[in-house]
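[job 4471] stage=fold_predict status=RUNNING
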Amino acid sequence: MRFSGKSTIFALFLLAAYSSGYAISAPISGQDQDERAEMFMASPNFTETNKPGRQLFADAGHPEEKSKSNKKIKKIETPHADDKDETHRHNANWKFQVSKGYPEDGRESFEKFQCYKCHAVDGEKFPKPEGDAVGPELSQMGPMHPVEFFAESILNPNAQISFSRDKSPEGNSKMPSYNEIMSLQELVDLSAFLTSLRPKGMPLIVQGQGTVVAVVPSGNEVIIDHKEIKGYMGAMIMGYKVAQPSLLKSLKAGDFIQFTINTGEKAITNIRRGGE
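[job 4471] inference complete, writing structure tokens
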């Protein structure tokens, strides 16, 4: 059996009326159906307490309820102009921070994942690195980087690749991924261990020379492709903080410089151009 649009609306009216307790005392002729429907919808019984009934009329295409339904949807989908939720905005000074780790447990992780196969650590009794995938000696790295640097290097080795020798033929880091086998706590502890490393007998003041790769005034930092710094660090590309922003004045990429590092402050205290 098929119904016309009006017959369908009226049938829904009867269903909604019944669910609301609206009494229908006598048969209703076809010509009175629309009038009865309008009267019922205006009655106290057909209020917000009968939301299913109203929705039935809206779905069937009744003009009044369809209009109300659209208004409700529009109200939900369109936020108020002055309703600005600040709770999901991050602070302008936000930066990722690794939680506190335990270096002694990190040392165990260093052994567990056999990091010594590629990285030597002066002062430790790990086996010597082997093969052609040898990475930088790590005791010299500890004083120069925050713990987040080491965490990133483990999570995403491709983020920082200092030398072409550290790259695979495809251009990626030779360092393997541990993301599927290392727990979060092991990552935190291993990063803490690497940060705690210090070269034996490290001098307070060291001298270096190299070529400026980039100047970052906003971070008071200069990135240098430098030669070996005896007793402190091997040859590599490294970013260094400067003790005074004025040291970066007129400095530009490509400049060959000589520089002085205060290893206690982990900062460059003097820069001179030339001298190669």
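[job 4471] summary: The longest helix spans residues 5-20.
[job 4471] exit 0
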